[in-house]
Write a structure and sequence with these properties.
Layout lengths: L9 H8 L3 E6 L7 H12 L4 E6 L11 H10 L4 E6 L5 H13 L4 E5 L20 H13 L5 E6 L6 H17 L3 E4 L5 H13 L6 E6 L3 H8 L10 H10 L7 H18 L3 E5 L4 H14 L3 H7 L31 H12 L7 H14 L2 H19 L45 H11 L22 H6 L12
Parallel strand pairs: 1-2, 1-8, 2-3, 3-4, 4-5, 5-6, 6-7, 7-8
Iron/sulfur cluster binds next to helix 15.
Length: 490
Amino acid sequence: MVDGATVTNPLRDALRAGRFCYVVELVASGLTREARLLEVASRLAALPDVVAGSITSYAGGALGHDPIRVGTAARARGLAPNIHLTCVGQDRQGLRKTLEDLHALGLENVFALTGDYPKADDPRQPVPAFDLDSVHLVRLIDEMRQAGARFHVAVAVSPFKYVEADAVWQYVKLEKKIAAGADLAITQVGWDAEKFRELKAYLDERGLRTPLLGNVYVLGPKTAERMAAGSPPGCWVSPELLEAVRRESGAPDGGRRARLERAARTVAVLRGLGYAGAYLGGTHDAEQIAWIIRRAGELLPRWEELAGELAFGLPGGFYLYRHATPAAPAGVAATRPPGMRLPRLLDLLGRLFPVTRDTGLRRLLRRVLAWVDRRPRLAAGLERVELAVKRPLFGCQACGNCVLGHLEYVCPETCPKRMRNGPCGGTRLGRCEVVDRPCIWVGVYERAKQAGRVRALTTYVPPPDRTLAGTSSWINFLLDKDSRPRSERG
Ligand code: SF4
Protein backbone atom coordinates (compact mmCIF):
# COMPACT_ATOMS: atom_id res chain seq x y z
CA MET A 1 0.00 0.00 0.00
CA VAL A 2 1.24 3.44 -0.87
CA ASP A 3 0.24 6.78 0.44
CA GLY A 4 1.67 10.24 0.19
CA ALA A 5 3.19 10.15 3.65
CA THR A 6 5.12 6.89 3.38
CA VAL A 7 8.02 5.94 1.18
CA THR A 8 6.90 2.42 0.40
CA ASN A 9 7.36 1.66 -3.24
CA PRO A 10 6.26 -1.85 -4.20
CA LEU A 11 7.95 -1.61 -7.61
CA ARG A 12 11.33 -0.70 -6.20
CA ASP A 13 10.95 -3.17 -3.35
CA ALA A 14 10.10 -6.09 -5.65
CA LEU A 15 13.04 -5.32 -7.93
CA ARG A 16 15.40 -5.07 -4.97
CA ALA A 17 14.14 -8.34 -3.57
CA GLY A 18 14.48 -10.04 -6.97
CA ARG A 19 10.78 -10.97 -6.89
CA PHE A 20 9.26 -11.37 -10.37
CA CYS A 21 6.70 -8.60 -10.63
CA TYR A 22 4.05 -7.10 -12.89
CA VAL A 23 3.49 -3.53 -13.95
CA VAL A 24 0.24 -2.90 -15.81
CA GLU A 25 -0.04 -0.12 -18.34
CA LEU A 26 -3.01 2.18 -17.81
CA VAL A 27 -3.56 4.08 -21.03
CA ALA A 28 -4.81 7.47 -19.91
CA SER A 29 -6.02 8.40 -23.39
CA GLY A 30 -8.85 10.84 -23.96
CA LEU A 31 -11.00 7.88 -25.05
CA THR A 32 -10.97 6.21 -21.63
CA ARG A 33 -13.10 7.79 -18.92
CA GLU A 34 -10.96 8.77 -15.96
CA ALA A 35 -13.42 7.22 -13.50
CA ARG A 36 -13.12 3.94 -15.38
CA LEU A 37 -9.33 4.07 -15.17
CA LEU A 38 -9.55 4.52 -11.42
CA GLU A 39 -11.90 1.57 -11.07
CA VAL A 40 -9.29 -0.46 -12.91
CA ALA A 41 -6.61 0.86 -10.55
CA SER A 42 -8.64 -0.29 -7.52
CA ARG A 43 -8.99 -3.79 -8.96
CA LEU A 44 -5.34 -4.05 -9.89
CA ALA A 45 -4.34 -2.93 -6.40
CA ALA A 46 -5.96 -6.10 -5.09
CA LEU A 47 -3.59 -8.31 -7.12
CA PRO A 48 -0.51 -8.96 -4.98
CA ASP A 49 1.92 -9.49 -7.89
CA VAL A 50 0.98 -6.20 -9.55
CA VAL A 51 3.41 -3.66 -8.10
CA ALA A 52 2.52 -0.60 -10.17
CA GLY A 53 0.20 0.89 -12.73
CA SER A 54 2.07 2.66 -15.50
CA ILE A 55 0.16 5.80 -16.42
CA THR A 56 0.74 6.87 -20.00
CA SER A 57 1.27 10.39 -21.18
CA TYR A 58 0.83 11.36 -24.76
CA ALA A 59 0.65 7.71 -25.90
CA GLY A 60 0.80 7.33 -29.67
CA GLY A 61 1.37 11.07 -30.08
CA ALA A 62 -2.05 12.20 -28.81
CA LEU A 63 -3.04 14.07 -25.66
CA GLY A 64 -4.83 12.17 -22.91
CA HIS A 65 -5.65 12.69 -19.23
CA ASP A 66 -3.10 14.35 -16.99
CA PRO A 67 -0.94 11.41 -15.83
CA ILE A 68 -0.07 13.15 -12.55
CA ARG A 69 -3.72 13.57 -11.62
CA VAL A 70 -4.55 10.00 -12.63
CA GLY A 71 -1.46 8.69 -10.85
CA THR A 72 -2.29 10.50 -7.62
CA ALA A 73 -5.83 9.16 -7.70
CA ALA A 74 -4.60 5.64 -8.50
CA ARG A 75 -2.27 5.79 -5.52
CA ALA A 76 -5.18 6.81 -3.30
CA ARG A 77 -6.82 3.56 -4.44
CA GLY A 78 -3.80 1.53 -3.41
CA LEU A 79 -1.94 1.19 -6.73
CA ALA A 80 1.57 2.64 -6.94
CA PRO A 81 1.79 4.73 -10.09
CA ASN A 82 4.64 4.77 -12.56
CA ILE A 83 4.22 8.13 -14.28
CA HIS A 84 5.23 8.44 -17.92
CA LEU A 85 7.15 11.64 -18.54
CA THR A 86 8.00 12.52 -22.13
CA CYS A 87 10.11 15.23 -23.71
CA VAL A 88 7.25 16.27 -26.01
CA GLY A 89 6.08 19.85 -25.71
CA GLN A 90 8.11 20.71 -22.60
CA ASP A 91 11.51 22.30 -22.45
CA ARG A 92 13.97 21.57 -19.64
CA GLN A 93 12.40 24.16 -17.32
CA GLY A 94 8.97 22.64 -17.90
CA LEU A 95 10.26 19.15 -17.26
CA ARG A 96 12.01 20.25 -14.09
CA LYS A 97 8.79 21.86 -12.89
CA THR A 98 6.85 18.66 -13.61
CA LEU A 99 9.45 16.67 -11.68
CA GLU A 100 9.20 19.11 -8.78
CA ASP A 101 5.44 18.56 -8.78
CA LEU A 102 5.94 14.79 -8.79
CA HIS A 103 8.38 15.07 -5.93
CA ALA A 104 6.06 17.35 -3.96
CA LEU A 105 3.27 14.81 -4.39
CA GLY A 106 5.53 11.95 -3.33
CA LEU A 107 5.24 10.25 -6.72
CA GLU A 108 8.49 8.37 -7.02
CA ASN A 109 8.26 6.18 -10.12
CA VAL A 110 8.96 7.97 -13.37
CA PHE A 111 9.09 6.38 -16.81
CA ALA A 112 11.42 8.74 -18.72
CA LEU A 113 10.70 8.69 -22.44
CA THR A 114 11.44 10.73 -25.51
CA GLY A 115 7.79 10.42 -26.53
CA ASP A 116 5.98 9.94 -29.80
CA TYR A 117 5.98 12.77 -32.28
CA PRO A 118 2.66 14.65 -32.02
CA LYS A 119 0.03 13.62 -34.54
CA ALA A 120 -0.44 16.36 -37.09
CA ASP A 121 -4.22 16.06 -36.93
CA ASP A 122 -4.50 16.66 -33.19
CA PRO A 123 -5.60 20.32 -32.84
CA ARG A 124 -4.64 20.35 -29.13
CA GLN A 125 -1.14 19.06 -29.73
CA PRO A 126 1.54 20.87 -27.80
CA VAL A 127 4.51 22.39 -29.57
CA PRO A 128 6.81 19.42 -30.24
CA ALA A 129 9.67 21.04 -28.33
CA PHE A 130 11.98 18.06 -27.87
CA ASP A 131 14.39 20.35 -26.06
CA LEU A 132 15.84 17.33 -24.24
CA ASP A 133 16.14 13.70 -25.27
CA SER A 134 15.45 10.77 -22.97
CA VAL A 135 19.09 10.46 -21.87
CA HIS A 136 19.12 14.14 -20.90
CA LEU A 137 15.85 13.62 -19.06
CA VAL A 138 17.29 10.75 -17.01
CA ARG A 139 20.29 12.98 -16.16
CA LEU A 140 17.98 15.78 -15.11
CA ILE A 141 16.07 13.41 -12.83
CA ASP A 142 19.30 12.06 -11.43
CA GLU A 143 20.54 15.60 -10.68
CA MET A 144 17.34 16.25 -8.75
CA ARG A 145 17.83 12.95 -6.97
CA GLN A 146 21.36 14.00 -5.96
CA ALA A 147 19.74 17.11 -4.49
CA GLY A 148 17.45 14.98 -2.32
CA ALA A 149 14.39 14.22 -4.48
CA ARG A 150 13.29 10.63 -4.39
CA PHE A 151 12.82 9.10 -7.83
CA HIS A 152 12.90 5.63 -9.28
CA VAL A 153 13.59 5.92 -13.00
CA ALA A 154 12.43 3.52 -15.67
CA VAL A 155 13.56 3.85 -19.28
CA ALA A 156 12.56 2.22 -22.54
CA VAL A 157 14.55 0.01 -24.86
CA SER A 158 13.55 -1.90 -27.95
CA PRO A 159 15.36 -5.10 -28.78
CA PHE A 160 12.89 -5.59 -31.65
CA LYS A 161 15.02 -3.90 -34.26
CA TYR A 162 15.97 -5.92 -37.28
CA VAL A 163 18.60 -3.84 -38.99
CA GLU A 164 22.00 -3.59 -37.37
CA ALA A 165 22.22 0.16 -36.86
CA ASP A 166 18.81 0.35 -35.18
CA ALA A 167 19.54 -2.62 -32.95
CA VAL A 168 23.01 -1.58 -31.81
CA TRP A 169 21.87 1.98 -31.20
CA GLN A 170 19.11 0.77 -28.91
CA TYR A 171 21.64 -1.03 -26.76
CA VAL A 172 24.20 1.77 -26.86
CA LYS A 173 21.53 4.24 -25.86
CA LEU A 174 20.39 2.00 -23.03
CA GLU A 175 23.96 1.99 -21.74
CA LYS A 176 23.84 5.79 -21.78
CA LYS A 177 20.56 5.82 -19.91
CA ILE A 178 21.94 3.45 -17.30
CA ALA A 179 25.07 5.58 -16.92
CA ALA A 180 22.79 8.60 -16.55
CA GLY A 181 20.94 6.98 -13.65
CA ALA A 182 18.21 4.64 -14.92
CA ASP A 183 17.05 2.07 -12.37
CA LEU A 184 14.97 -0.14 -14.63
CA ALA A 185 14.52 -0.79 -18.36
CA ILE A 186 11.21 -1.71 -19.96
CA THR A 187 11.12 -3.15 -23.47
CA GLN A 188 9.01 -2.01 -26.38
CA VAL A 189 6.33 -4.32 -27.75
CA GLY A 190 7.44 -7.41 -29.69
CA TRP A 191 7.05 -11.17 -29.82
CA ASP A 192 10.52 -12.56 -30.39
CA ALA A 193 12.16 -14.58 -27.61
CA GLU A 194 15.56 -14.42 -29.29
CA LYS A 195 15.45 -10.64 -29.12
CA PHE A 196 14.39 -10.72 -25.45
CA ARG A 197 17.36 -13.02 -24.85
CA GLU A 198 19.68 -10.77 -26.86
CA LEU A 199 18.92 -7.73 -24.71
CA LYS A 200 19.52 -9.65 -21.49
CA ALA A 201 22.77 -11.11 -22.84
CA TYR A 202 23.96 -7.64 -23.91
CA LEU A 203 23.57 -6.28 -20.39
CA ASP A 204 24.99 -9.41 -18.75
CA GLU A 205 28.05 -9.28 -21.00
CA ARG A 206 28.78 -5.77 -19.76
CA GLY A 207 28.11 -6.58 -16.12
CA LEU A 208 25.06 -4.29 -16.09
CA ARG A 209 22.59 -5.50 -13.48
CA THR A 210 19.78 -3.08 -14.32
CA PRO A 211 16.54 -5.05 -14.02
CA LEU A 212 14.50 -5.62 -17.17
CA LEU A 213 10.75 -5.76 -17.61
CA GLY A 214 9.57 -7.40 -20.82
CA ASN A 215 6.58 -5.90 -22.57
CA VAL A 216 3.72 -8.36 -22.82
CA TYR A 217 0.83 -7.08 -24.85
CA VAL A 218 -2.57 -8.78 -25.05
CA LEU A 219 -2.88 -8.49 -28.78
CA GLY A 220 -6.24 -8.32 -30.50
CA PRO A 221 -6.80 -8.16 -34.27
CA LYS A 222 -7.36 -4.40 -34.58
CA THR A 223 -4.23 -3.48 -32.66
CA ALA A 224 -2.28 -6.17 -34.52
CA GLU A 225 -3.25 -4.55 -37.83
CA ARG A 226 -2.16 -1.14 -36.59
CA MET A 227 1.11 -2.33 -35.09
CA ALA A 228 1.95 -4.34 -38.20
CA ALA A 229 1.64 -1.06 -40.09
CA GLY A 230 4.00 0.68 -37.66
CA SER A 231 1.54 2.42 -35.35
CA PRO A 232 2.29 3.26 -32.59
CA PRO A 233 5.87 3.79 -33.73
CA GLY A 234 8.35 1.21 -32.50
CA CYS A 235 5.90 -1.66 -31.95
CA TRP A 236 6.76 -4.75 -33.95
CA VAL A 237 4.11 -7.20 -35.24
CA SER A 238 5.42 -9.50 -37.97
CA PRO A 239 3.23 -10.60 -40.91
CA GLU A 240 3.19 -14.15 -39.45
CA LEU A 241 1.94 -12.91 -36.10
CA LEU A 242 -0.68 -10.75 -37.77
CA GLU A 243 -1.88 -13.78 -39.68
CA ALA A 244 -2.01 -15.88 -36.51
CA VAL A 245 -4.03 -13.21 -34.67
CA ARG A 246 -6.44 -12.89 -37.58
CA ARG A 247 -6.95 -16.66 -37.58
CA GLU A 248 -7.50 -16.77 -33.84
CA SER A 249 -10.06 -14.01 -33.98
CA GLY A 250 -12.30 -16.32 -36.02
CA ALA A 251 -12.80 -18.54 -32.92
CA PRO A 252 -16.18 -18.41 -31.10
CA ASP A 253 -14.65 -16.26 -28.33
CA GLY A 254 -13.18 -13.83 -30.90
CA GLY A 255 -9.65 -15.06 -30.07
CA ARG A 256 -9.77 -13.95 -26.43
CA ARG A 257 -8.42 -17.19 -24.98
CA ALA A 258 -5.63 -17.43 -27.57
CA ARG A 259 -4.36 -13.92 -26.90
CA LEU A 260 -4.36 -14.39 -23.15
CA GLU A 261 -2.52 -17.69 -23.60
CA ARG A 262 0.10 -15.97 -25.81
CA ALA A 263 0.57 -13.30 -23.15
CA ALA A 264 0.96 -15.93 -20.40
CA ARG A 265 3.48 -17.87 -22.50
CA THR A 266 5.48 -14.71 -23.10
CA VAL A 267 5.56 -14.03 -19.36
CA ALA A 268 6.78 -17.58 -18.72
CA VAL A 269 9.57 -17.06 -21.26
CA LEU A 270 10.58 -13.78 -19.62
CA ARG A 271 10.74 -15.44 -16.21
CA GLY A 272 12.85 -18.22 -17.66
CA LEU A 273 15.22 -15.75 -19.31
CA GLY A 274 15.83 -13.97 -16.03
CA TYR A 275 13.78 -10.84 -16.56
CA ALA A 276 12.76 -9.02 -13.40
CA GLY A 277 9.14 -8.79 -14.41
CA ALA A 278 6.55 -8.21 -17.08
CA TYR A 279 5.00 -4.99 -18.26
CA LEU A 280 1.44 -5.91 -19.21
CA GLY A 281 -0.46 -3.88 -21.76
CA GLY A 282 -3.43 -4.22 -24.04
CA THR A 283 -5.94 -4.94 -21.32
CA HIS A 284 -7.39 -3.04 -18.39
CA ASP A 285 -9.28 -6.10 -17.19
CA ALA A 286 -8.01 -7.18 -13.76
CA GLU A 287 -9.48 -10.66 -14.21
CA GLN A 288 -7.53 -11.14 -17.41
CA ILE A 289 -4.37 -9.91 -15.68
CA ALA A 290 -4.93 -12.34 -12.82
CA TRP A 291 -5.48 -15.17 -15.31
CA ILE A 292 -2.24 -14.36 -17.17
CA ILE A 293 -0.27 -14.29 -13.92
CA ARG A 294 -1.70 -17.63 -12.77
CA ARG A 295 -1.28 -19.31 -16.14
CA ALA A 296 2.31 -18.03 -16.54
CA GLY A 297 3.15 -19.78 -13.27
CA GLU A 298 1.75 -23.05 -14.62
CA LEU A 299 3.69 -22.70 -17.87
CA LEU A 300 7.02 -21.77 -16.30
CA PRO A 301 8.51 -25.32 -16.37
CA ARG A 302 8.00 -25.29 -20.17
CA TRP A 303 9.55 -21.89 -20.79
CA GLU A 304 12.40 -23.10 -23.03
CA GLU A 305 10.04 -24.95 -25.34
CA LEU A 306 7.73 -21.90 -25.39
CA ALA A 307 10.66 -19.62 -26.20
CA GLY A 308 11.21 -21.65 -29.36
CA GLU A 309 7.65 -20.88 -30.40
CA LEU A 310 7.85 -17.16 -29.65
CA ALA A 311 9.61 -16.37 -32.89
CA PHE A 312 7.82 -13.53 -34.64
CA GLY A 313 10.86 -11.57 -35.76
CA LEU A 314 11.93 -10.81 -39.29
CA PRO A 315 13.37 -13.57 -41.48
CA GLY A 316 16.94 -12.63 -42.26
CA GLY A 317 16.82 -9.77 -39.77
CA PHE A 318 19.77 -8.71 -37.66
CA TYR A 319 20.48 -10.62 -34.47
CA LEU A 320 23.52 -9.50 -32.50
CA TYR A 321 24.68 -12.96 -31.49
CA ARG A 322 24.11 -14.70 -34.81
CA HIS A 323 27.24 -15.08 -36.86
CA ALA A 324 25.99 -14.36 -40.35
CA THR A 325 23.51 -11.61 -41.14
CA PRO A 326 22.47 -10.80 -44.68
CA ALA A 327 23.16 -7.27 -45.91
CA ALA A 328 19.44 -6.44 -45.84
CA PRO A 329 16.61 -8.54 -44.41
CA ALA A 330 13.75 -9.67 -46.62
CA GLY A 331 11.55 -6.74 -47.62
CA VAL A 332 14.11 -4.09 -46.65
CA ALA A 333 15.78 -2.09 -49.38
CA ALA A 334 19.54 -2.19 -48.98
CA THR A 335 20.72 1.33 -48.17
CA ARG A 336 23.87 2.78 -49.64
CA PRO A 337 26.51 3.16 -46.93
CA PRO A 338 27.01 6.85 -46.14
CA GLY A 339 29.95 8.55 -47.79
CA MET A 340 33.20 8.34 -45.87
CA ARG A 341 35.26 10.79 -47.91
CA LEU A 342 34.15 13.93 -46.07
CA PRO A 343 34.46 12.42 -42.56
CA ARG A 344 37.93 11.12 -43.41
CA LEU A 345 39.00 14.52 -44.74
CA LEU A 346 37.66 16.26 -41.64
CA ASP A 347 39.38 13.71 -39.39
CA LEU A 348 42.62 14.40 -41.24
CA LEU A 349 42.21 18.16 -40.89
CA GLY A 350 41.49 17.66 -37.20
CA ARG A 351 44.78 15.79 -36.83
CA LEU A 352 46.78 18.33 -38.85
CA PHE A 353 45.27 21.36 -37.12
CA PRO A 354 44.39 20.21 -33.60
CA VAL A 355 42.10 22.58 -31.74
CA THR A 356 40.26 20.24 -29.38
CA ARG A 357 43.20 20.24 -26.95
CA ASP A 358 45.50 22.94 -25.69
CA THR A 359 47.75 23.64 -28.69
CA GLY A 360 49.41 26.77 -30.03
CA LEU A 361 46.86 26.89 -32.82
CA ARG A 362 43.99 26.71 -30.37
CA ARG A 363 45.45 29.53 -28.26
CA LEU A 364 45.94 31.68 -31.34
CA LEU A 365 42.42 31.05 -32.62
CA ARG A 366 41.03 31.76 -29.17
CA ARG A 367 42.67 35.18 -29.15
CA VAL A 368 41.41 35.98 -32.65
CA LEU A 369 37.87 34.80 -32.01
CA ALA A 370 37.70 36.56 -28.62
CA TRP A 371 38.54 39.74 -30.53
CA VAL A 372 35.83 38.95 -33.14
CA ASP A 373 33.34 38.12 -30.39
CA ARG A 374 33.70 41.61 -28.92
CA ARG A 375 32.51 43.04 -32.28
CA PRO A 376 28.89 41.90 -32.70
CA ARG A 377 28.67 42.72 -36.42
CA LEU A 378 31.84 40.84 -37.15
CA ALA A 379 30.66 37.88 -35.04
CA ALA A 380 27.33 37.84 -36.89
CA GLY A 381 29.23 37.92 -40.20
CA LEU A 382 31.32 34.95 -39.10
CA GLU A 383 28.14 33.10 -38.16
CA ARG A 384 26.80 33.68 -41.68
CA VAL A 385 30.00 32.36 -43.21
CA GLU A 386 29.85 29.31 -40.93
CA LEU A 387 26.26 28.62 -41.93
CA ALA A 388 27.04 29.06 -45.62
CA VAL A 389 29.69 26.36 -45.29
CA LYS A 390 27.87 23.96 -42.98
CA ARG A 391 24.31 24.10 -44.22
CA PRO A 392 25.01 22.56 -47.64
CA LEU A 393 27.44 20.05 -46.16
CA PHE A 394 25.58 18.95 -43.04
CA GLY A 395 22.15 20.56 -43.06
CA CYS A 396 23.34 22.84 -40.21
CA GLN A 397 20.53 24.61 -38.32
CA ALA A 398 22.79 27.12 -36.53
CA CYS A 399 22.24 25.71 -33.05
CA GLY A 400 25.49 27.27 -31.86
CA ASN A 401 26.66 24.13 -30.02
CA CYS A 402 28.30 22.02 -32.67
CA VAL A 403 28.77 18.33 -31.94
CA LEU A 404 29.44 17.17 -35.49
CA GLY A 405 32.81 15.82 -34.37
CA HIS A 406 31.10 13.51 -31.86
CA LEU A 407 28.42 12.27 -34.22
CA GLU A 408 30.43 11.27 -37.26
CA TYR A 409 29.70 14.62 -38.93
CA VAL A 410 25.94 14.11 -38.90
CA CYS A 411 24.05 17.12 -37.56
CA PRO A 412 21.67 16.09 -34.72
CA GLU A 413 19.46 19.07 -35.44
CA THR A 414 18.40 17.34 -38.67
CA CYS A 415 16.68 14.68 -36.52
CA PRO A 416 13.01 15.78 -36.25
CA LYS A 417 13.18 15.19 -32.49
CA ARG A 418 16.57 16.95 -32.24
CA MET A 419 18.02 14.07 -30.23
CA ARG A 420 21.72 14.14 -29.36
CA ASN A 421 22.30 10.69 -27.85
CA GLY A 422 20.94 8.31 -30.45
CA PRO A 423 17.66 7.49 -32.13
CA CYS A 424 14.32 7.20 -30.40
CA GLY A 425 12.53 3.85 -30.28
CA GLY A 426 10.33 4.72 -33.24
CA THR A 427 12.70 3.73 -36.03
CA ARG A 428 11.43 1.01 -38.31
CA LEU A 429 13.92 -0.94 -40.40
CA GLY A 430 16.29 2.00 -40.37
CA ARG A 431 13.70 4.61 -41.28
CA CYS A 432 12.56 7.67 -39.35
CA GLU A 433 9.27 7.56 -37.42
CA VAL A 434 8.41 11.14 -38.39
CA VAL A 435 9.49 11.74 -41.96
CA ASP A 436 9.78 9.29 -44.81
CA ARG A 437 13.55 8.97 -45.03
CA PRO A 438 16.36 6.94 -43.46
CA CYS A 439 16.96 7.72 -39.80
CA ILE A 440 19.96 10.04 -39.47
CA TRP A 441 21.33 7.83 -36.70
CA VAL A 442 21.80 4.97 -39.14
CA GLY A 443 24.36 7.16 -40.92
CA VAL A 444 26.08 7.94 -37.61
CA TYR A 445 26.34 4.25 -36.81
CA GLU A 446 27.51 3.16 -40.25
CA ARG A 447 30.26 5.76 -40.30
CA ALA A 448 31.31 4.93 -36.73
CA LYS A 449 31.46 1.26 -37.65
CA GLN A 450 33.57 1.89 -40.72
CA ALA A 451 35.92 4.07 -38.68
CA GLY A 452 36.08 1.52 -35.81
CA ARG A 453 34.51 3.97 -33.36
CA VAL A 454 31.26 2.30 -32.32
CA ARG A 455 32.17 2.36 -28.61
CA ALA A 456 32.66 6.13 -28.87
CA LEU A 457 28.92 6.37 -29.50
CA THR A 458 28.38 5.69 -25.80
CA THR A 459 29.75 9.19 -25.06
CA TYR A 460 27.14 11.35 -23.39
CA VAL A 461 26.27 14.40 -25.49
CA PRO A 462 24.71 17.09 -23.25
CA PRO A 463 21.73 19.19 -24.29
CA PRO A 464 22.65 22.28 -26.28
CA ASP A 465 22.58 25.72 -24.74
CA ARG A 466 19.67 27.02 -26.81
CA THR A 467 20.47 30.63 -25.98
CA LEU A 468 23.37 30.24 -28.40
CA ALA A 469 21.11 29.48 -31.38
CA GLY A 470 22.02 31.70 -34.33
CA THR A 471 25.54 32.41 -33.06
CA SER A 472 28.80 31.05 -34.40
CA SER A 473 29.58 27.62 -32.99
CA TRP A 474 33.23 28.20 -33.92
CA ILE A 475 33.37 31.13 -31.52
CA ASN A 476 31.35 29.28 -28.90
CA PHE A 477 33.61 26.25 -29.15
CA LEU A 478 36.90 28.09 -28.89
CA LEU A 479 35.69 30.37 -26.10
CA ASP A 480 34.17 27.41 -24.22
CA LYS A 481 30.71 28.90 -24.22
CA ASP A 482 28.93 25.92 -25.75
CA SER A 483 27.60 22.67 -24.41
CA ARG A 484 29.45 19.60 -25.64
CA PRO A 485 30.88 16.35 -24.27
CA ARG A 486 33.15 16.85 -21.30
CA SER A 487 36.14 15.07 -22.83
CA GLU A 488 36.92 18.20 -24.83
CA ARG A 489 36.90 20.56 -21.92
CA GLY A 490 40.26 19.44 -20.61
S1 SF4 B 1 25.21 20.58 -34.44
FE1 SF4 B 1 24.45 22.70 -34.48
S2 SF4 B 1 26.16 23.95 -35.26
FE2 SF4 B 1 26.65 21.78 -35.72
S3 SF4 B 1 25.91 21.44 -37.79
FE3 SF4 B 1 24.20 20.88 -36.41
S4 SF4 B 1 22.98 22.76 -36.12
FE4 SF4 B 1 24.95 23.33 -37.03
